[in-house]
UniProtKB/TrEMBL annotation:
<dbReference type="Pfam" id="PF07883">
    <property type="entry name" value="Cupin_2"/>
</dbReference>
<feature type="domain" description="HTH cro/C1-type">
    <location>
        <begin position="97"/>
        <end position="151"/>
    </location>
</feature>
<feature type="domain" description="HTH merR-type">
    <location>
        <begin position="8"/>
        <end position="77"/>
    </location>
</feature>
<dbReference type="InterPro" id="IPR010982">
    <property type="entry name" value="Lambda_DNA-bd_dom_sf"/>
</dbReference>
<dbReference type="InterPro" id="IPR013096">
    <property type="entry name" value="Cupin_2"/>
</dbReference>
<keyword id="KW-0238">DNA-binding</keyword>
<dbReference type="InterPro" id="IPR001387">
    <property type="entry name" value="Cro/C1-type_HTH"/>
</dbReference>
<dbReference type="InterPro" id="IPR000551">
    <property type="entry name" value="MerR-type_HTH_dom"/>
</dbReference>
<dbReference type="InterPro" id="IPR014710">
    <property type="entry name" value="RmlC-like_jellyroll"/>
</dbReference>
<dbReference type="InterPro" id="IPR050807">
    <property type="entry name" value="TransReg_Diox_bact_type"/>
</dbReference>
<dbReference type="InterPro" id="IPR011051">
    <property type="entry name" value="RmlC_Cupin_sf"/>
</dbReference>
<dbReference type="Pfam" id="PF13560">
    <property type="entry name" value="HTH_31"/>
</dbReference>
<protein>
    <submittedName>
        <fullName>MerR family transcriptional regulator</fullName>
    </submittedName>
</protein>
<dbReference type="InterPro" id="IPR009061">
    <property type="entry name" value="DNA-bd_dom_put_sf"/>
</dbReference>
<dbReference type="Pfam" id="PF13411">
    <property type="entry name" value="MerR_1"/>
</dbReference>
Length: 269
């Protein structure tokens, strides 16, 4: 192991330290109790904090007899306040969602059931800000009475009129293959974004909200579906304007990246 970097344990090593089997670790991962990192080759890697968490999970299961849902809630109650300076920006969206859930008095299982996702998926999102579709992220924002843009940290400060190409901020990469870059900052009447979609990236379902929106394809190819039965195949230079209250879903139909300019008004996404 590299003495200059953080310690990382393989599955067998982490299981031995936690006093459980490797198959148990995989089960706990599927239940959303722990989210290990991955090596460049895709193998699971557990940090020292992960191992400490595994030991707590084992204690709650053996000594307290708690089920996975109860263990998740117990582990959450142990976590420090998210107001500290050491809070990671990468997990900021997940922390905001967890704070909103706590404020509403809901459990993970209740919100997951209301939204139509698994508790493990929601737990992973709250812990890592990753692992959900674009549609699910929108549904959660709507559930809590906010917008994805606000959850992603776009609402603070005055309007910045100039955003240079190399200085664009991006949303947390919640959805695999979807990068959303900010083209305008601060208080404004439009959500102005540059979407970069990897091959096959999609909304994974339809969503809707108030307002109107405009998109312009810069490169690649995008399929957009309105109301489930109107299909638009958009290529470079094509534009589309529609009411946001219409159900809309999309996917990258190109074998490379698709890049588009996407504007919502008012900022309700």
């Amino acid at each position: 192991m590299n003495d200059n970097g953080p310690v990382r344990y393989k599955v067998a090593e982490a299981a031995r330290l936690a006093g459980v089997s490797a198959s148990t670790l995989r089960l706990w991962e599927s239940q959303g109790l722990v989210v290990p990192g991955r090596s460049e080759t895709g193998h699971r890697q557990y940090s020292a904090d992960d191992v400490a968490r595994l030991k707590r999970i084992s204690w709650y299961r053996v000594e307290r007899g708690l089920n996975p849902a109860a263990i998740r809630e117990a582990l959450e109650s142990e976590e420090p306040s998210t107001d500290g300076a050491e809070a990671s920006q990468d997990s900021g969206l997940g922390r905001k969602l967890r704070s909103l859930r706590h404020a509403s008095g809901k459990t993970l299982d209740q919100v997951a059931g209301d939204i139509g996702v698994t508790s493990s998926t929601l737990s992973t999102l709250e812990r890592t800000s990753q692992g959900v579709s674009f549609k699910t992220l929108h549904d959660l924002a709507e559930y809590y009475g906010t917008t994805v843009s606000r959850l992603s940290g776009e609402e603070s400060g005055e309007v910045a009129a100039l955003v240079r190409a190399g200085e664009r901020r991006a949303w947390p990469e919640t959805t695999p293959g979807v990068t959303v870059q900010l083209l305008a900052e601060g208080r404004r009447m439009m959500d102005c974004h540059r979407f970069v979609l990897a091959p096959g990236a999609a909304s994974e379902g339809a969503y809707r909200h108030e307002g109107e929106e405009f998109m312009h394809v810069l490169s690649g190819r995008l399929e957009l579906v309105l109301d489930g039965d109107q299909f638009f195949d958009l290529g470079p230079g094509d534009s589309l304007y529609f009411e946001s209250r219409r159900d809309h879903s999309w996917r990258n139909r190109h074998d490379g990246e698709t890049v588009l300019l996407w504007i919502n008004t008012p900022p309700t996404f």
